[in-house]
Specification:
about 250 residues, alpha/beta, Spore Coat Polysaccharide Biosynthesis Protein SpsA, Chain A, 9 strands, globular
């Protein structure tokens, strides 16, 4: 059986070589690493192309500023394996990640989707959250994940048969790729959440809110900003959950 790894990158030059190495040591000679780079402004793409010249298992498919959902859509669309693993370009896999996940598939023929636990780290791989499952109260229940997601794309693997339900992604979907994939997997297949930490998941960067600004660029009063922000977040949560319920019922 052939394994495909759909890996996405964006300005990941500091970490991507380490991640590629940990992925390749999990793969056999017949497997493939599909890398989709979303228009990096650093030398991530150059590093990937260099690696692809050295190892024929690596195939690089650049895309221009598609965002995280479009980047994963591009990577997954080029996968040809019987099993598809997902990965960001800055994680670190354990040496037995693929073997342990494939053992679960082998022991449970009716299973179409596996998600394992991971530890969340800072950029230097210092653990900040020992267990993502514990943090998110993760479990493979469909409506639980409609209300509050347990999914982490970098911890996912699924059979190619699920692609008929996963691809293409809905237009303008208000959630990330991993929620969409996870919900479709729970609806159309059987899933196992593997309680083993097989990944170091780097989390860094992000943005801090500067408050709501008026037409002159000045921050409005904090109380008013909090009120408006709460209303906006409430509306977004209601809308997102309504869309997810629609998917569960009709997709």
């Amino acid at each position: 059986m052939k394994i495909s790894v759909a890996m996405v990158t964006y300005n990941s030059s500091r970490y991507v070589r380490e991640q590629v190495d940990t992925i390749l040591e999990n793969l056999g000679p017949q497997d493939e690493l599909i890398a989709s780079d979303d228009g990096s402004s650093d030398n991530t793409l150059a590093l990937l192309n260099e690696d692809a010249k050295k190892d024929p298992r690596i195939k690089v498919f650049p895309i221009a500023h598609a965002g995280v959902n479009g980047n994963y859509l591009n990577a997954i669309s080029h996968c040809t394996g019987d099993f598809i693993f997902l990965s960001d370009g800055d994680n670190v896999w354990t040496k037995d990640k693929v073997a342990k996940v494939m053992t679960v598939f082998g022991q449970n023929p009716k299973i179409g989707f596996v998600m394992h636990d991971c530890s969340v780290t800072d950029p230097d791989l210092n653990v900040v959250v020992p267990s993502l499952f514990a943090e998110r109260h993760s479990r493979p229940k469909l409506f639980k994940n409609v209300m509050r997601t347990s999914f982490c794309g970098s911890c996912m693997a699924f059979k190619k048969d699920l692609l008929r339900y996963i691809l293409p992604f809905p237009k303008k979907m208000p959630v990330y790729y991993d929620e969409w994939i996870g919900l479709m997997a729970l609806k159309h297949s059987k899933a196992i959440f593997l309680d083993e930490k097989l990944l170091l998941w780097r989390r860094y960067g992000g943005s801090a809110s500067g408050g709501f600004l008026n037409s002159d660029g000045q921050t409005v009063k904090k109380k008013k900003a909090r009120f408006k922000g709460s209303l906006k977040r409430f509306h977004e949560r209601v809308h997102t959950r309504a869309v997810k319920f629609w998917w569960v019922l009709f997709r």
